[in-house]
Design goal:
It is a single chain. The chain is an alpha/beta fold. It contains eight helices and seven strands, in the order H-H-H-E-H-E-H-E-H-E-H-E-H-E-E. It has a single domain, classed as Vaccinia Virus protein VP39 (Rossmann fold, 3-Layer(aba) Sandwich), CATH 3.40.50.150. A seven-stranded mixed sheet has the order 3-2-1-4-5-7-6, with helices on both faces. Helix 4 links the parallel strand 1 and strand 2. Helix 2 packs antiparallel against helix 5 and helix 3 packs parallel to helix 4. The longest helix has 15 residues. The termini are far apart. The structure holds S-adenosylmethionine (SAM).
């Protein structure tokens, strides 16, 4: 993934963020070792700490994640939940889930994390809200579908965080016609004028849009 933020600034921000939890270091290390070319999908230290802060600041008790990969962001968010909080995380890949399950089970937050495997749109149809925080980070061509599926399940004061909204800068390239880029560009444009919600695009890592209900 091309870097959006100047790499020295990104490193400085990471170095001036509270230390990465050992459980997150462990899953990141195994992911980089085992899924070398896919490890760019990890949210990583800075964004993981950002998500953890969102859970803590918002007082979220019920969290939903669409796109778990090896469990980094799920663990980061679960670590900030209260003891009776819960996080449901969705992925389609058994290969990714095998790694995630081991790290979740070895963590102090396993009782708060519920892993569901299958196409996320199918799983979402089986879940009841309200969720206080929803993190969308799966296949980009379905981002709009995920947004529409989770919006009715959002708590009144809930937040939807949508990852990779800058897509390595390709959102600025009008000649980029691939499905993923078009899906992200179209969703970004739609959200900015969607009267149901208010949103702010934050330039953390690859861009994260925070969405909340207008009323
Ligand atoms: C960018 S990664 C998620 C990264 C993760 N949030 C983290 O911080 O480590 C995207 C994940 O979405 C999953 N995915 C792709 N298409 C999917 C679908 N249709 N339903 C559910 N999961 C899907 C992939 O298997 C992959 O693990």
């Amino acid at each position: 993934m091309p870097e959006i933020v100047n790499p020295d600034i990104e490193r400085y921000a990471s170095e001036h963020t509270s230390a990465e939890l050992p459980e997150l270091q462990a899953v990141a290390a195994e992911t980089r070792e085992r899924f070398k070319d896919r490890s760019g999908m990890l949210t990583g230290h800075l964004e993981g700490a950002f998500l953890r802060a969102l859970v803590a600041i918002s007082g979220a008790r019920r969290v939903l994640e669409v796109g778990m990969f090896t469990g980094y962001s799920a663990l980061a968010m679960a670590s900030a939940l209260p003891a009776d909080g819960s996080l449901v995380t969705l992925d389609i890949s058994e290969e990714h889930a095998e790694v995630a399950r081991r790290h979740v089970e070895a963590s102090p937050w396993s009782d708060r994390i519920d892993i569901r495997i299958g196409p996320a749109l199918d799983t979402l149809a089986t879940l009841d809200g309200p969720f206080d925080l929803v993190f969308i980070d799966a296949d980009k061509s379905n981002y709009r579908n995920y947004f529409e599926a989770v919006l009715p399940k959002l708590a009144d004061r809930g937040v939807i965080a949508i990852d990779n909204v800058l897509w390595g800068g390709r959102v600025l390239d009008a000649s980029a016609t691939d499905d993923d880029t078009r899906a992200i560009v179209d969703l970004n444009a739609a959200l900015a004028t969607d009267e149901r919600v208010e949103c702010v695009m934050v330039t953390v890592r690859d861009g994260v849009t925070l969405v909340r209900l207008r009323n």
